[in-house]
Every structure is written in C-alpha cells, then in structure tokens.
Write the structure tokens for this entry.
Amino acid sequence: MPKNTHRLTLLAAAVLVLGAGLPAAQGAEPAVRTYRNPILYADYSDPDVIRVGGDYYLVASSFHFSPGIPVLHSKDLVNWRILGHVLPRLPFHPAYDMPGPYTLTDAVSKPVGSGLRYAGGVWAPSLRHHDGAFFVYWATPDEGIFMSTATDPAGPWSAPVAVLPGPGYEDPCPFWDDDGKAWLVHSKVGAGPLVLHAMSVDGKRLLDAGKTIVEDKVQLPVLEGPKLYKRDGWYYIFAPVGGVGTGPQAVLRAKRIEGPYEHRRVLLPGNGLEGPHQGGYVETPSGQGWFIHFNSSGAFGRIAHLQPVSWRDGWPVIGTPAGDGSAGLPVSGGAYPDTGAAFSDVRLQDSDEFSSDRLGLQWSWNHNPDDARWSLSRRPGYLRIEAGPARQLVGARNVLTQVLQGPSSEITARFELAGLGERQRAGLALFGVKVPWVGVVREGGASYLAWSEAGVETRVAPLEGKAVVLRASVRADQTVQFSYAPDAAGPFREAGPALPLARFSWWKGSRPALFTFIRSDAGPVPAQAGGGPVQGYVDVDWVRVGKPAG
C-alpha cells in the first residue's frame, strides 16, 4: 500500500455539504465537498470496512436480530445503502427460534438463557476479500466462531462453518499473508487477551490451538475488536481498549505476525466523543487512509463516524493530530474522501409500502421468525402478521424491526384491524428493554387505543373504525411521543406523555418495530369453536419514515 501523508484540514462548522458536479462561478475555485459526522446516525456497531476496486463494503454486529450481519455498500465512504445480509436465519441454537412465552423480567435477567438469545447472536464481524471471494467471520458468545463466503457481497452467502466451536470467544479477524499462509486473530469474552491461530488457506479450519500474542491488562485493559493488516512490511492490529463507553483506539505493530507487539493509543476521546473506538481501516485508490468506528449514543445505539488517518514514523494517527502528534482527536467532519466517485445521494432504506413479494432489506425480526405466521402474499400490498401468545412484547415472536436513524425521526404506519382476536395487541413500538409502544388492544369484543411502557398498558380511547394510523415521533433528547389518527385522513392526537427510549438494550439501540401478540398472562389463550387457540392477525398497509415536522 502506498504510504499516505495526506492530512485533512477541517472546515468551519458553518460550511454546508456541497454536491459534486455543481457549477462553480466563473473564475472561482471549485467548491470542496464536505461531510459531517456521524456518517451513519444509526446503530451499526463494531463496523468493519473494506475496499474492492472502487466499491466499499461494511458489516456490523447484528446480535439476536434475524436476518443477521447486514452488508452495506458505498462508493464514497460517506453515503451507504443496505446491500444484503450474510445470514438468512440464525442457526446456532434452538433459542434463536424464541420458544416461549416469556416475561419482561425473563428478557432482562435471562437474555441468553435456554429459551432466549437477546444479547447473543452475531458479535463484531470482520469482512475480507481474498482470491476473488468475500469472507465474513464472526463470533456468537455462546456457540463459537463461524465463517461464511460469497462471490457477490449481496449474497447468497455459504452456510456458516464453525471454525472454533464453543463458548467464550469474540471478535475474530482473518488474515492472508503475502506468502499465502492464513491466520485468525480473536479476543475472548470479557475482552482479552488476543489469540492468534494458523488457519487453512480456505479459511475453514484452524491448524493449531492458538497462541496468546498480546496481553497487558495495565497498558491495554479491555482489549478487544482486533483488525489485522499489513503495511510497509509491518503487521498492524487495530484494537480498542478501555471499554465501550470511554475507551480510546489503540494500534499494535510488529515485524512478525506472532509478535512481539509494541503499541500506541492513536485516537483519544475528545470533541464530544467519549469512546471513539472499534472499527475498520481502509485506503482509497489514491492512498488516503480512513477509519470508520462507532461511538455510543444511548438510545440510538453505537453510531458510525469517519476519521481521516495520516501516517507518521510508521504509526497511524487517527483524526486531527493532538499533543505531540502521535495521537489524534475525533473530527466533526471535513473534505470528502478522495475515492474518485461522483456525488452519491444514496441513503439507508427505511419506508416500505409492502408492495413487493419480499421484505425490504431494512427489516430484521427480533429472533428467527415463524414464517408460517407472516406473509406478503395472503393479502397483496399488505404485511400480515399473525399473533402468538406472549406475556409481554419482549417475549413475542415475529416482532419486525429496523434501525432507528437519528438525531430525530418520525415513523408512521397504517394498521387494518378486521383480523384482531380477543386479547390481541398490535401496533408500533420502539423496541428494547422496557419497550414503549402505541397500539390497539382488543378486549371483551371491543378495540381500544392504548400506550404502554415497561409492560404497563394505559387505554386512551375506544376505536370504532376498521383502521388506525400510528405515529412515533423520536426526538433528539431520546424520547418518543406517540400519536394516532382514526385513519390516514386523521388529525393526529397524542397518545400518552413523551416516553424515554431504552438507552441501550442487549447491546443494541432502540428500534422502530411492528408487532402483534395475544396477551397470555391473564390465563390460557381463549379457544375457538373448532379447537385450538385463537390466532388473530393484523394487516400493515405501509410504514413511512421521515423527519418530524418543524
């Protein structure tokens, strides 16, 4: 890789983001296109990024959500779109199928017990391109380290291969050296030490029991998330230290892949970011270095920032140099990366009219779905979800979610209610611990508009119509104001007070969600005349996401 001596000069905060291709005034210098952090104001935690030709690909942790491991694509490192997922379902344990029912207490106190895998699933994947194929490696904390390959990053991806079965591993990263040998580095649950394995060239088998190459709990506490690179004859491991909330980014280097490694802290907390760390390094065709990392932001999860990387005496400096210049501080923005790409206005998918025969790529279920209980074809143009029993929403299966985009967002959805059954709930939630929701409650043959927080329901008004439009207005102060209208022509009326979003739930931020379930904590689910439990359904006409008015 060519040595990069490029450094960005930050523009004043008042400078607007300008689109490439806008004509400059006669005799004037062309406008410099700038970006602002975060580049993804959305919960794409533990990001890893690579370049293949002129295309950039990013993967992130997906934990218990299904499908798992989103793959994003960009041409400029700033604007991203969801390309696909590595895992159609989570096949690692029956608990990912969410047998139940479970209570709110179960979900909080036993998130990875025998029947739930909240906070389990995919932790910190790594993405690499080698010999014409894409490789993704990830760990599930209870089941082991896995890998999958594809020739097209949009999929299909191969079935997961268990590279290192068993609990207690995290954050694997593969590496193919210049001599053709393959390696795998990973951490352990609890953060550290770093362990290196020789690996088969196809990436499917480890060839040894592993060797601890870095362990220093004083200088490198909470060492995790290693990403292994080679540059100018040096092996570099980019790895965060100090913990998710407040830690810096460290880099280790050695002349031999097995060490010994020396280290520096190269990106420090500052400029409003308390924990600017864990991510991936990439270079543009012109040799610019860039680092995409997360920073915790409460209910919005761990959002993605883009930092310039300069090199000094064989060490990276991330962000804007500070102090003696050996480390950097996060930048709030700057000139666009020199990728050679034309201006791109792509954005993450969000709204859905449910007019396709497939769910949009923005959607993920709270665990593996019961595919017999949802459909886009039983009533074309609508998403139908059938209700199953649950004591509380967090124990309900087939909760359909998408990432929340900040710093404010307005999610509106239309629900048709003719299929509701006795004791059924259906509506719009901001999914997480103590999940707040607004929706319809069917009790005693009548329907009521209600809102809920931490499992406590409050009825607002009876509903007489065949449909209702529900709205969640998420504010920058990380609260949500629910409202409703009898139908699309409504005026909207507030439903309850502004409620706090779950600040951080099972390693994920709060997520807009569509749900239905039959409340089972008041006794057995009512039986229907032909035998078997009543299974009501709800039809969702559309979901539209935008910015709140004003």
User: Anything to note?
Assistant: The longest helix spans residues 104-109. The two ends are 48 Å apart (CA to CA). Residues 262 and 445 are 70 Å apart (CA to CA). The mean pLDDT is 90.
